[in-house]
Predict the structure.
Amino acid sequence: MAPSRNTVAVLLLLLPLVIGALIAFATFIQRRRQQRLWQEEQKKRKEKANEEIDTDPTSPVKVATKEELKELLEKEAWAPKLDLKDWSEASEFPGCPWNFECCQGLDEVLEKIWKQPLPTELQSGYKALAARIKSVRVARVKATLPTATHFVIVYTLMTGAELFGGAPIEHAVGLTLDNEEETTMSNKPDDGLRRRRGAARSVGSKGPAHVDPDQMVPDMLLPAMLPFYRIHDGFGVLLSTGHLPLLLSSPTEGMSGSCFYVYPSRGLELEVARGRPLVRFARVDKTCSACAEHGVPRPVVVYLEKTGEQTEDDECPLDFIGDTISNVAGQRVVPPSYMGGPSSSS
């Protein structure tokens, strides 16, 4: 049966479309093949050029090593600059908050840093630290985003482990020690803390420390921490001194095992947990923080889990700090009450 006249007419109309589609497909395949060949050729040329650079000692182009890349990174304007000096050279840092010019050894250096007399709650931590220190260095971190200069004491222990403490804050006012006879501004040039506007030094007995409510610093979330902040604005452990810039810029963050265990004043965090205003002031472990209630003259430690569970202890924040420093210095102390240890009242 011969095709009808209409069928022939339709085939004649479709034939140019089919031929055009075949030509377009063939052109596409050819272009893809040429593109693939060009890419392969470029890859070979690049590999050959790299081989010539690596083997030609006179080539002006070199592949940077890790050390060279690190050096280039440190030269970037935005990158924080870290400098370390032994305590005997600390005066070479302009604006260094510690003055060790009259010190003859580590004992005198520690006395300058840990301004004597110490509150009772901090004495155990200081003794545990002092007994295990091998060397003391001063670190300066200069950041540009935002612009800031941080000074830190780096303690190297006999074991090789390293601890660090921030510079004392300048507004430790209203701080008194029980039975204290007087609180004066020191004018002696060999003071452990270089004389600054608003910096005070307490003298008197070694009784427990507290803060006069009438003289509390308005922006201080937890004034009970001031007796420690007059020594170190934050305290922690270091697995590498290179971690300091990150820790100082983000105090509540850790890096490869380095972290603040006692947060600096700028790292204190206020949150409402189950209707209770709590200030996170220290790290216990990954899942637990040490807190204290905001607005209470003599707060106690409240352990706050990530789950929201709270466990209140009888010890004050300074007791917790003293035990924490003893622990990180290598002198094991009894666990807190929330981990099965005795409470302060027992």
Q: What stands out?
A: The two ends are 112 Å apart (CA to CA).
